[in-house]
Amino acid sequence: MTANDGDSASSGAMLDGARATIEDYLAEERLFPPPDALRASALVNSEAIYDQAADRESFWATQAHALTWFEPWSKVLDWTPPFARWFVGGKLNVAYNCLDRHVEEGRGDKVAYFFEGEPGDQRAITYAELLDEVGRCGNALRSLGVERGDRVAIYMPMIPELPVAMLACARIGAVHSVVFGGFSAEALRDRIEDAEAKVLITADGGWRRGQPVRLKASADAALEVGASSIEHVIVARRLGEAVEAVSMSAGRDLWWDDVVATKESHCPAEAMDSEDLLYLLYTSGTTAKPKGIMHTSGGYLTQVAYTHKYVFDHLPERDVYWCAADIGWVTGHSYIVYGPLANGATSVLYEGTPDHPGRDRWWSIVERYGVTILYTAPTAIRTFMKWGAQLPKGHDLTSLRVLGSVGEPINPEAWIWYHENIGGSRCPVVDTWWQTETGAIMISPLPGVTTLKPGSATRPLPGISAEVVDEAGARLTRGGGYLTLSEPWPAMLRGIYKDPDRYEATYWSRFPGRYFAGDGAKIDADGYLWLLGRVDDVMNVSGHRVSTTEVESALVDHPSVAEAAVVGAKDDTTGQAIIAFVTLRAGVEATAEHGEMLRGHVAGKIGAIARPRTVVFTDDLPKTRSGKIMRRLLRDVAEGRVLGDTTTLADPAVVEELRTRATEQANEE
Ligand code: WT7
Predict the structure, then answer these.
(1) Which helix (H) or strand (E) holds 482?
(2) Which end of the chain is more exposed for a tag (fewer CB within 10 A), N or C?
(3) Cα-to-centroid distance, 440 and ligand 1 (Å)
(4) CA of residue 531 to ligand 1 center, whole Å
(5) Any bridge partners for residue 123, and if so which?
């Protein structure tokens, strides 16, 4: 086996959106076979599992049997491309599988979550306690008229009430739509309206970097105009006395402590069809309107439980597991809530930022709870690299056994740093590729089996079929192309809410018969996959998906903006940074203050994650003869020069460069 064999990444322009270049990887040639100690005790330590999975349907049926079903399925898979139904006719309840069966089997006293608030408050919540609280919340929702199939929006900080609210929905058969707490009031309103949610569950706020974040105030703003489907708002108390009293609208708004805490805990779990909707989760695409990704019950829970167990080599009796993501993203849904709870895990749930009160907060958490498995994103690792290795060195991290990475390609330098400084050179790093749409991990090493190459997500998991194809859709066994999934998988999205046409067009039309992920990938001589980043107009900022079009439409929404073009430029910490090229309307002055204001405007429309790093004012945007904005050129310009962290005033050099390059390119056409 060789390390990266250095094929060229792509055949020119087609993959030019793919951000990671193979040159980035060439520097690292070391291979990392599974450490002997880990291999000896691992749940899977032989290649045989890949052979067992050759019969995919029987393999997945075996995994599904790890769950408790109220009624068996009659057929493993019904596949009418691009619509799949898994475990057809089977009945189960997701919350029952995450809670009741552990309690019934005598594990009620096991800790489900070690919660740690940012201010330092700590709470251990057992499976029995979690079950009771979920029952009370389920009864509260039922008392407010929420029935099977109704949608419930959830807009909360990372506090235990968040998984409780999700599981309560699952218990009574309601569909949750969690909206990340960092999203703006307007983004929350759009999502409530698309889902026609009946109830909103929120909190007075949460703690972030020592400051209160007033979520109820945002929720109020979201409900001020529109969002008229909301009948009630349940408000958990987190900030309490720390802030001024929140305003409660009489008849509509109810305190969690009044409506949930007073209910009885016994709450029968609905027997749901395997294909009943479990949740909607909105994600950005190539248009301004986010897509409501639909996930259902039986197949989803099967694959999140299976992957959580084998990818992290997780044993509930041995491990303390920490996925340091936010539950508001799919990573948190699948690997803080559903996967770990289905497997009876003890997890850490941490509310805040990594640098409060000190930059070693995470390492103090690992030490305090004896964390054995840590799952995070490359952007966090690169931030820790910048902060320096002395911070983790100040803590005992010897409990760690397995490290995970997700969200974007991990550069080998960050991989090695993570391996050495966090994992003490003894923990495999599993680089897991997946998406909101896939619901669960798809491409990843198995820590007791796979020889690792830093920067490669290695191979599709047993039961998963991922292939790289060329422009014409022909399968490649070597070299660069597009990543596709060639067979249906249990946790796959079942569609885009209320928009089946967009589902087909977005994922299934580019390469007929294949799911197109939107990522470029390269396959090397050993069959290892190297993810190269998005090939569409989707940016990846700190492992989060942001649509260029969405940011553009937020910009042109401002009365001073005539036109805007947004690109993602390579950034050493966040992977990509958002650069906005803006043409102002006549008479508006391009000042630094105006640029600042526009950055704030975007954050207000979408959320802080979408705030452009730089606004560049320019008189014209370079366009093709047919009027298409030349994004590639803009990206080259953005990456080719050092653009500041805020506003680049109508920099004559940038404008000049745009003009010359556009002319050159037009002449080449
Ligand atoms: C996009 C999906 C899956 C949870 C977090 C993001 C990129 C994700 C990797 C990885 C290279 C990765 C892809 C993908 N991505 N994991 N291990 N290596 N790229 O979920 O917001 O749905 O974004 O994230 O580009 O398409 P998401």
Answers:
(1) strand 479-485
(2) C
(3) 11
(4) 9
(5) 115
Residues 183, 314: one domain?
Answer: no
Q: What is the pLDDT of residues 27-73, one digit of tens each?
A: 688 999 999 999 999 999 999 999 999 999 999 999 999 999 999 99
CB atoms within 10 A of CB 11: 12
In three-state secondary structure terms, 36 is helix
Q: Do 280 and 495 contact (CB within 8 A), yes or no?
A: no
By residue range, what is the domain housing residue 316?
39-65+297-456
Rounded to the nearest integer, the mean pLDDT of the chain is: 92
Residue 563 in 3-state DSSP? strand
Q: Are 439 and 505 within one domain?
A: no
Nearest to 192 by CA among 223, 232, 157: 223
Span of 1-15, 131-145, 328-342 with lowest mean pLDDT? 1-15
Is the same domain home to 520 and 571? Answer: no
Q: What is the mean pLDDT of residues 418-431?
A: 98
Residues 44, 461 contacting (CB under 8 angstroms): no
Give the binding-site residues of ligand 1, using a 6 Å CB cut-off. 283, 330-331, 406-409, 431-436, 457, 517-519, 531, 533-534, 540, 543-545
When pLDDT is averaged across residues 431-442 and rounded to a whole number, the result is: 98
The residue whose CB lies within 8 Å of the most ligand 1 atoms, and thus the one to mutate among 433, 464, 546, is 433
Query: Is the Cβ–Cβ distance between 397 and 418 less than 8 Å?
Result: no
Shortest-distance Cα residue to atom 18 of ligand 1:
409
Nearest atom in ligand 1 to the alpha carbon of residue 433 is 17
Q: What are the residues whose beta carbons fall under 8 Å from the beta carbon of 616, sequence distance 6 or more? A: 579, 580, 581, 582, 638, 643, 647, 648, 651, 654
In a domain, 476, yes or no: yes
Counting Cα atoms < 13 Å in the Cβ hemisphere of 315 gives 8
Extract the tokens encoding 612. Answer: 């452009």
Regarding beta strands 538-541 and 75-80, do their DSSP bridges make them parallel or antiparallel, or are they unpaired? unpaired
The span from the CA of 562 to the CA of 559, in Å, is 8
CA 281 from chain center: how many Å?
A: 10
Q: How confident is the model at residue 5 (pLDDT cuts 50, 70, 90)?
A: very low
Q: Are 255 and 233 in contact (CB under 8 A)?
A: no
Q: Which of 333, 441, 531, 547 to mutate to test the pocket of ligand 1 (most atoms within 8 A of CB)?
A: 531
User: Model-level pTM?
Assistant: 0.92
